[in-house]
Amino acid sequence: MKYFLRTDKKKGEAVLYCQVYSKKHAINRVKLQTGVKVDVKEWTKAMSSPKGYKTYSESEDGKKVVETLNLIDSAVALLFDKDVATMDDVRSTILNVVCREEKQKQDEQKAQDEKEKAEARKKVSVLLDEFIEGITSKEILIKKRGVYSDSTIAVYLHFRGILTEFLKKNKMQNIKFDDITVTTANKFTKFLSDKGLMMNTQNKMRNCLRKLCYFALDEKLCTDISVCRLWESHEASAKESRTEIFLDDTEINYLYSLGLSDREMQQVRDVFVLATLVGQRFSDMIAIDSDCFYTDMGVLNCRLTQQKTKTDVVIPITEDIAVEICEKYDYNLPKVSIQKFNVLIKEICRRAMVVCPSFGDMFVTQLTAKEMHAEESYRKLTERKESGVKLTENERKNLQKLSVMVQTYGGINGNIYQRNSKGQVIRPKWSLVSSHTGRRSYVTNTLNEGVLTAQDIMSNTGHKSEKIFRHYDKTQAEMRARQIAAKLLNKKGKAKNVELKIAE
Hints:
The chain is mainly alpha-helical. The chain is built from 19 helices and eight strands. Strands 1-2-3 form a three-stranded antiparallel sheet. A hairpin with a 6-residue loop joins strand 5 (299-305) and strand 6 (312-317).
């Protein structure tokens, strides 16, 4: 084959052409573009003499060109050895040879990228991003349970913010899983504590990191299983725990009878009251529809698969109020976002103070990190304003919002939240009510009735562990004392003097 240029340029780059000839295949000196680019001046010089070509073939650029042309010659020769060969075959053969180097470069680059990606995945921050993307897109599932719930995804998003802050503060942005030590774990624990996070929240953050380490282990990005065991939960003291309240039967009845003109508030109230009677999580309450209900032995039952645990439960609906609520919505409970639900149920309980003063009872509580930040912002903005500093538009809006919170929660002396004489944060009961209060109230009230055993109630709630189940029992010490006293007196035949009724 003969190679030549078809250009009048004296310098710069140009593409080589070739002349193809094969008598066997009736191909007569057809001119084809090779796709091989050469320096016009250097190529012209090379073709001027055998010595020039030899010099060119030994140069860095010329060597690559000559190797490619030799490969084209060999490939076309092999093609022409076949019985059938067309011009399209020739073009394809030349293209494959010319592109081989580019393909090789692409393959090498791809291999390098994959190697770098695999190495990057060993970084805690990189794998966390990948994990969150996977659980959000539902590509990563919980073993035996399916997709991650929205609330769990929200926890991991919160965790990412916390972890990113920790890594940046300690200059560990590039830390890999195998680099994690006991010292790292202790630093992270101290970091969580210094942020003022409640122990429950701290445990959630450690649990997220533990699960991420196990994920890295499964992905073979972590070689030491001991790394996964550095993030055990810490037992929270009463002082460190979130204040968890429940509503007794009297409060629930007052709440259900409360006159509400707003339809959405009525719906939120009804779903909440029903939750106090069936003991299900918010995610399961709003999923209840007519397909969940059936009647057995004259009793209305609700069958559902719990979203969080995929546990199948069947709850007998025996309370008149519960049946009434189900019938009211034609057995299809209204849907509402959990964010709106928690806002509205607090407002409803606040209004209920008019008929049920216990909703205004004050409880000692802890501030969350978010609430601590809000108080700090309020103090700083107030000080700036009082010192005569002109606030920006965003600062003014933020101060106005925080001032409304001060009025709502009775804060004074630079605090948003009210304090008692000991300086402890105190809040009214209505402000502590949330979607989960319904489930907690069901467990506590049902246990106090004494009709059902713990195992009976766990069958309804779907709890597998009695230890976890007992966290939902919020019976006050006074009530416990009365129950114990009644049992002791009953043993002595003196139960008639006890006001508390004990179920037989």
